[in-house]
């Protein structure tokens, strides 16, 4: 496993619901919790009540003309029936890429799907806990 992950505890906040409408539902978090995290897309693990791997976005959302930084996580194999806690504990591992602009939401979805493939490959290389 690579060096120790960056640990983040963030308050869950309400989002616009865009991820759900795009078919990639995210949990939105208070971006102030990002601390020293560099803007971009990351491999992460959320720790509630079990561990869920996922991808984390920190930064603006240029495809939607939003300059304000956001912090949101898409969790793989997440059971949508689970209650999301008021605060989420994350371990942030590998950097995948910078925040980018896309010509359309469709192109964004294609890139997120690629980010997910990259993240899953990286996860395979980690020591299983």
From TrEMBL:
<dbReference type="GO" id="GO:0009398">
    <property type="term" value="P:FMN biosynthetic process"/>
</dbReference>
<keyword id="KW-0288">FMN</keyword>
<keyword id="KW-0418">Kinase</keyword>
<keyword id="KW-0547">Nucleotide-binding</keyword>
<keyword id="KW-0808">Transferase</keyword>
<dbReference type="InterPro" id="IPR015865">
    <property type="entry name" value="Riboflavin_kinase_bac/euk"/>
</dbReference>
<dbReference type="GO" id="GO:0008531">
    <property type="term" value="F:riboflavin kinase activity"/>
</dbReference>
<feature type="domain" description="Riboflavin kinase">
    <location>
        <begin position="1"/>
        <end position="124"/>
    </location>
</feature>
<protein>
    <recommendedName>
        <fullName>riboflavin kinase</fullName>
        <ecNumber>2.7.1.26</ecNumber>
    </recommendedName>
</protein>
<dbReference type="GO" id="GO:0009231">
    <property type="term" value="P:riboflavin biosynthetic process"/>
</dbReference>
<keyword id="KW-0067">ATP-binding</keyword>
<dbReference type="Pfam" id="PF01687">
    <property type="entry name" value="Flavokinase"/>
</dbReference>
<dbReference type="InterPro" id="IPR023468">
    <property type="entry name" value="Riboflavin_kinase"/>
</dbReference>
<dbReference type="InterPro" id="IPR023465">
    <property type="entry name" value="Riboflavin_kinase_dom_sf"/>
</dbReference>
<keyword id="KW-0285">Flavoprotein</keyword>
<dbReference type="GO" id="GO:0005524">
    <property type="term" value="F:ATP binding"/>
</dbReference>
């Amino acid at each position: 496993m690579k060096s120790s992950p960056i640990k983040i505890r963030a308050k869950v906040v309400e989002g616009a619901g865009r991820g759900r409408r795009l078919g990639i539902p995210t949990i939105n978090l208070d971006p102030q919790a990002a601390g020293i995290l560099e803007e971009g897309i990351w491999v992460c693990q959320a720790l509630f009540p079990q561990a869920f791997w996922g991808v984390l976005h920190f930064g603006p959302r240029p495809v939607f003309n939003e300059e304000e930084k956001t912090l949101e996580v898409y969790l793989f194999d997440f059971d949508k029936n689970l209650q999301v806690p008021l605060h989420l504990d994350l371990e942030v591992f590998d950097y995948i890429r910078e925040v980018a602009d896309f010509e359309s939401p469709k192109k964004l979805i294609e890139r997120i799907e690629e980010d997910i493939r990259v993240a899953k490959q990286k996860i395979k290389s980690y020591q299983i806990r």
